[in-house]
Design brief:
Chain lengths: 570, 464, 165
Amino acid sequence: MSEAKTDLVDVQIDGVWHRFPKGTRMIEACRQAGVEVPHYCYHPKLTSPGNCRMCLVEMGLPPRPAPGAEAPEPDEDGHLPISWMPRPVIACANTVGPNMGIRTTGPLTEECRKGVMEFLLANHPLDCPICDQAGECSLQEFSVEHGKGESRFREQKVKKPKNVDVGPRIRLDDERCIMCSRCIRFTDEIADDPVLGFTDRGSHTVLTVYPGRELANNYSLNTVDICPVGALTSNDFRFQMRVWFMRETHTIDTNCATGCNITVFSRQNKIYRITPRQNNEVNSDWMPDSHRLNYHWIESEARLTDPLVKEGGHHRIADWSEALATAADRLSSLKGGEIAVIASARMTNEELLLVKRLAKQLKAGHLDTVARTGEADGYLISSDRNPNTNGAKLILGLENPGSGIAAIQRGIEEGRIKGLLVLQENIVDEAGFSPELLGKLDFLLSTYPIANATADASHLVLPGACWAEKSGTMINATGRLQRLNKAVDAPGQTFEPWEIVRDLIQATGGGNGVHAVTDIFKQLTAEVEAFAGLTWGQIGDLGLPLLETDVTIPLLEREKQRIASGLIVG
Amino acid sequence: MSGISYKSGREPHPKEHRVVFRNVDREGWDTSLATYLGEGGYEQWKKALQLPRQEIIDAVKQSGLRGRGGAGFPCGVKWGFIPPTNTKPVYLICNADESEPGTFKDRYILHQDPHQLLEGMAISCFAVGANLAYIYIREEFPEAAVIVEKAIAEAHEKGLLGKNILGSGFDLDIFVHRGAGAYICGEETGLIESLEGKRPYPRIKPPYFPAAMGLYLCPTIVNNVETLCHVKHILEIGAEAWAKTGTPNNTGTRILCVSGDVQKPGYFEVEVGKVTLGEVINEMCGGLKPGRSLKAVIPGGSSAKVLRAGDVYSVGRGDDARELTLWDIPMDFDTLAACGSMAGSGGVIVIDDSRPISWVLNNINGFYAHESCGQCTPCREGTLWMKKITDRLVAGQASPSDIDTLYGVAKNIDGRTICAFGEACAWPTESFIEKFRDELTSDTRPELEGAIVNSETLTAAAGL
Amino acid sequence: MSLAVPTALEKEIDDRITHYPVSKRSAVLPVLHLLQHQFGHITEEAIEWTAAKLELEPIKVLEVVTFYPGFRQEAPGKYHIRVCRTLSCAMAGSYELMDSLCEKTGIDRSGVTHHHPIAVSPDGKYSIEFAECLASCGFGPVCMVNDDFHEKVSDADSLLSQYSK
C-alpha cells in the first residue's frame, strides 16, 4: 500500500484539493470527487476517441517560470499556484498529474458545453415526443443542465436514413445519431463482430451496418443500452412503455451460473424490459440478448395460477389448504425411504435450506437437483445453465448435482421409490423422466411456474413463482453470493417456492415459524459455515465473494487485460 | 547559382534565393538518378551514413529549421520527441498531401526533383533511426506518384536504398502511399490513420503524439516535403551557414506560392523574412491587376487569418516595437503571427476590390464543410452550418444577426476540436467578420430577421 | 457477385501489399486505387474482394471508400473531368469553366448532390465533378481529366478536343 501512496498526486477540482493515483483519467477523478462531467462518447469499458467534446473542462498546471525567474512558492499545504490553460481539454482521455487544476464550472467550460449542445441539436430531429429514449436520453439531460434553451440554427437539417433495420433486434435512426461511436467500438472491441461503421464524411456521416450483413450477435442489444440517444432502439421495447412510468428492480439473471446483474423494468406487475446492471466482478456492463429477452413467458397464458389436484385422471383447481392437506395425507402413507426429492439449482439458497429440512423431516431416501448444461460462449454465458449450482452443492451437500437422478429413476422403475417431490423442475422435459415412469409412482407432487409435462403427470401441482417474482440469494459460478429481488407479483394463487416448502414442512409435521426470506437467510448464517457472520444488507446490490472457485468469466478476463494495458479505464 | 539556366519565362525572380527549388524549371534538368548524381546528388546521404546520428539531429536543431507544412514547428525539436527509452521500430513519413488551398510548392519537388526529397528523407530516416518510410502523396498527383516510385526504384538499384546501404549496415525502404482526396490527411495523425487503412480521423493528443505513438503505435516522424529537402542542404552547407539565410528564429528559405488577383501569380523561394508582402505582390508578382486596389491578403494558406489592406499592425516589443502596413510585413513566421495571422504553408492569396468578401468567405466555407472529417462534434456540425449561412448571405437571404450567429459558430469550433482543423475552418470566418463586418452586413437584409429558412425561400431567392 | 480480377492485376496488388510489412490493412487505399483504375469505379464486389484480400470486415473497407471523394461508387464517363472549385481557381473562373464544360458536353448537373457528386453526359463519354483544391492555385482554373493535369484552362473547347475520341 505504501508503494501505491507514492503514486498519488494532488489535484484541485473546482477549488478543492483531492488526491488520486497518477494516471487517473480526469473524468474519473472528477467523478470520485463527486463532480459529474457530462459526456457522450466516453465509456469506461471502451477505448476513448474523444470525439463528442462534451467533457471539455478547464485545466491548469503550476506556472513554468521563465529561465532565471524565481520558481513559484508553494502555499502552506504544499500546493503550487495554478496557471490555467487558455484552451479547454477533454476530461475523458487526459490524466491527472501533480498539482493539476480542473475547473468544471466557470465561463469557459460552460461556453464549451453550451456550444457542443447547440451543435449536437443543430441537425437532430428533436422528435422527443415519439422517441423511445425520451426520459433517459443524454441529449435531453444535458440540454437541461448545460444547454441554452434555444437554437440559432435556422437552416435545413441534413437528411439521413430513418427506421433502418440493422439486425433482428435493433432499429437505427441515423438522424438521431450523434456519431459518438460507442456502438461501433462495442462491436469491434467487446463483441468481436465488427459489422457497424461510419460511412460518408463530415456532416453527412452516417452509422451503417454493412449492406447484407446484420448486427445479430448475441450481445447486440448492449449497443442499445450504451447508445446515449435514441439512435439505436430495441425492437422488443420500442413503443411499449414510456421509461418514466416504469419501476426499476435490481436483481440478477438466472439463465446461467454467471448471474449477470440486471435491472428489471416493470409497470403494474408487467415486465417491459431487462437491462444489464454494472458489476465489474460479474458481467461488467453487459449481458447476452438471449438472457435479456427470456422474460415474455412470464406473462404466458400457460402460467399455473392455482394448486391442482388430480382426480380421475384430470386436474381440478384446489385451494392451498386442501392442497397442503392432500400432500400431508399422501406423504404420511409413505415410508421415508420410499420418498425422493428433486429440487432445482434455480432455487435460492434460502429455498434450498428449507428443501434440505423438508427432505430430512420426510426422511427422504434421495435428494438431488437437475443439472442443466450448454455451451459456454466465451463471453458471459456459462456452460452451467443453472444459476445456483454452487448453492445446491453447499446447502444440500451435493458433490455432483444431478448425479443421483439415475438412481431415482431406477428406484421408481423398481418400485422402491413410491413418492416423488419435484420442486421447480420439469423432469419430463429436462431430466429424462418419461410420463410412463412417473405413472408408477403412488404420489407425485410438483411445483413450477408454468404448465408442463411433469405437472401433467403429477397428482398434486403447486404453482411456484418464477425468478422475477421472488427474492433470495444465489451463488454464481465464481462463488459470488448475489441477491435476487422480487420485481413483480406472481399471478393468481402462485406462491414463492420458499413459502411452499415451508408450508409443506408445517403440513407434514414441523412448524418453524419462518415468515420472510430474510428469516431463512439468518438461519443460513447460523447453519452453513460459509454464511457465518453475513447479513442480508451486507450483500447489497453487487453481491460479495463467498466461495473460492477457479472459475473465471472470459469477458472479464479480457477486460482486465485491456485495463492493464491502459486501453480502457474499466 | 552560376551556370544554371532556367526555362524561358520560368526564370526565378532576382529576389529569390533558390535552394530547394534550385532545379525546378531548370533547363536540361530531368528526374533521372543520373542527372541528380551528376550534380553531387546523394553525396550528403553518403556523408550522413558516416556521422553519428545525434550529430545530424543536433545540426537540424541548430539550423532552426521550422516545419514548412503549416504549423512552423521546429523540426529538430520534433525529432527529439522520440522517447529516449524507445525500443519499438521508428517510422518516418513524408507528408506530400499538399492540400492547403493556396499552396502549390511540394508538387514541383515531387514532379521535378524527386531525388532531392529522397536524399533528404534518407538522411532524416538515418538520423531518427527509421528503417521504413512512406511518402504520402495526395491522390490528385498521380504523375508524381509514378515519378517518385521510379526514383525510388533507381535509388534501390544503385544501392542508395534497401539493405545495408553502401555497406553501412543501415537498411531503409521507402514506399509511396497515395491518398484519395482528403484535406484531413494533411493532419499528421489523420495521415497516420489513413496509412493504417482506416478512416483518417485525427487522433487525440495526448496520448497519441506521433513521435511516441504514431504509425502502428510506434514512434513516427511526419515531416513536410519541403522540410525534408532542407535537411539535405543543412548537411551540405552546415547548420550555421544554413541558419545565416533567413532571419533569426525564421531561418532558411521557404517557398511562397502566390495566387489570386495579381498579374503574375507563381512560386518564389525566398529567404524567410527577407522580403515583404509588398515586394512579393508588387515586384515578384507584377502588382495588382490594372485599375484594381488591394482589399485583403490571406498570407499562409486559406486557414490563415485574413489581413486587411489599409490596416496598421503593431509588431515587436520594446526597442523593436514598430508599426507596419500590410505592404511592409516581412514574410516570416514570427511577424505574421504578430500581425494576428500565420505564415502557415506559404500560400499567399491576394484579393482585390473586385471580390465581394461574402463570396470569398462562402467559397472557403464550402471547402471546409466538404473537408471536415466529421469525427468530432463542433467541426462536423459547425462547418456545414457556417457554409449554409454564407450560402444564404451570397443569395441575399441573410439577416444582420446571421453574421453574429456565423461568428458565434466559428468561435464555438475554435480551440475545441481534436485536431487543428477546428482552427483552420474557424479562423477564416472569424477574421473575415472581424475585418469586414460592415461589408458583410451590407449584404444582409434586416427584414429577414428571424425568418424561417427552407428550400422554398432559397429557391425563390435564386429566382428559380 | 465475385469480382473478376485479372491475374496480372492481382499480382500487382499482391506486390503492393508487400509495401506494408507491419499491417496488410494499410494496403486498403492502394488496393482500391488499383481496382478503380481497372474497373472505373468501386463496386460492392470490389469492396468485398478487397476485404477478403486484406482479411478485413467489409464494413472497414466501405468506411474508407465512402470517406474519400477519390473513390467513386458510380460509373464515370470515359473521360472523367475534375474541376477545381476552391478559392484561387474560383477567382480564376472555374465556375464559369464548369458551366462551359457542361454546356459543351451536354452534362446536366442539376441532380448533383453530396451523395452523387458526379454527372455524366448523355453519351457516357464525359463525366464531371467539382474537386477541392488541386494544388496549382497560381495557374487556375485547374482541372484534371482522368490522370492528366491541366492548368489555366480558359477554353472548354480546346480542353475537350484533346479528349474527343
